[in-house]
Amino acid sequence: MTRSIHKFALGVAAAALMAPAAIAQESSDPIILVQNNWTSQLVLSNVVGLVLEDMGYNVEYAPSDSQLQFAAIASGDMHFQIEAWEGSMKTAFEAAVADDGMIDAGTHDAVTREEWWIPSYVLEKCPAANTWEGLNACAEIFATAETAPKGRFVGPPADWGKNYADRVKALEMDFVAINVGQAATLWAELQSSYDRKEPIVLFNWTPNFIESKFEGVFVDFPEPEAACFDDASWGPNPNATGDCGAPSAAWLKKAAWSGVAETWPKAWAVMQNIKVSNARSAAAALMVGVEGMTPEGAAVKWVAENQDIIASWKQ
Ligand code: TMO
């Protein structure tokens, strides 16, 4: 009798030491969060890490390519992605879900767009440049030594998965897509053109910090439908597939390894609850892109400023 009471008391003491007690029964293996190479993702992945660490989990970060990451999640090498963008990742995302290893962990409130974009002053020289046909009619004003007489489209890093050369060809545009190596080069090109009010068309997206710093508009392309990619007769070019743009109102999703629910049940509940709006995502990007903070520092600030939404994730 005495002995069993003693054992019981020891058990209680041990449980109290394992804080927080709520996850004492869960795996202590690290939850590996995917990181990509643009600012909102870097900040928000750190936010998720802070929230999970606060719950008592071990967290690690792993950099990954925005296309190959989904296969890594499906195979359990990485466990959670906070930002999967429809415009550039839909195909790879859906393939990994179809393979069973990766789970669609839900959709954010944010409505996104990834598309060609021009500063507003370009419309003074080329009033219809907010449509692909109007832009194409002025292609020459976007020419550089490298692309003349065709215009230059400043494209994203190749690992963001979109091959704009294919779209240019399908729409028979007088442009050459020149990919940058990293996001910072996109903004350096924009800043340098902006300062001189020179025409530029580049890849951009929303939510992003760019909209708070530069005035501009996306270029409208034909809204994509499945037929754009498998029926040549669809779209402006009756002889080509791929003659369309990215969706103008696209989803932003989360992705998780299928084993997360069993391995870290309480973390899985939080991952499913996580939802970020356009404003909160843009605010995360702005701390790095405009205020010059590190993603880690910005995450600490974001957590402090968004306690209300974080509380709702933990319910
Ligand atoms: C994936 N991204 C938001 C950079 O287009």
How would you describe this protein?
The protein contains 15 helices and ten strands. The radius of gyration is 23 Å and the shape is globular. It is α/β, with parallel strands linked by helices. The longest helix has 16 residues, at 2-17. Trimethylamine oxide binds next to loops.
Unreliable stretches, pLDDT < 50, 5 or more residues?
A: 1-17
Based on secondary structure, the structural category is: alpha/beta
| Overall average residue pLDDT | 93
Q: Summarize the helix and strand pattern as letters.
A: HEHEHEHEEHHEHEHEHEHEHHHHH
- Number of distinct helices: 15
Distance between the termini: 40 Å
SSE map:
Elements: H1 2-17, E1 31-35, H2 39-54, E2 59-63, H3 69-74, E3 80-85, H4 86-98, E4 102-107, E5 113-119, H5 122-125, H6 132-137, E6 151-155, H7 164-170, E7 175-179, H8 183-196, E8 201-206, H9 210-213, E9 216-218, H10 226-230, E10 252-257, H11 260-263, H12 265-273, H13 278-289, H14 295-305, H15 307-313
Parallel strand pairs: 1-2, 6-7, 6-8
Antiparallel strand pairs: 3-10, 4-10, 5-8, 5-9
Helix pairs in contact: 2-13, 2-14, 13-14
Bound molecules: trimethylamine oxide.
